[in-house]
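The protein record filed here.
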Amino acid sequence: MHIRGDQAQLVVGGRLDVRSAADARTVLHSAVDDGAGDLVLDLSELDSWDATGLGVIMGAHRRAGRCGRRLVLRSVPPQMQRLLVATRLHRILAIEGGIGVESLPRV
């Protein structure tokens, strides 16, 4: 997993899973704490995430809210969009451009 960027936009790549969760949490929390305004997470380079990785995203979302910021997901890959819809988290998280639920293949 790799994360690059600043307090306004981060690009997350690789696998966001139980092995990378602690490092990702540290980077995301620092970005939330040190910045202002929206924090955009570009997920275009993300290969996969598991429940732990999704928990890291939700934790950053909650922390951003407490800091008066908003976490915005950008370029969410289709397989991850399906997971967000299945867990109904697409209704809670800010997703740039939204998710076209009707266009996602059924699983």
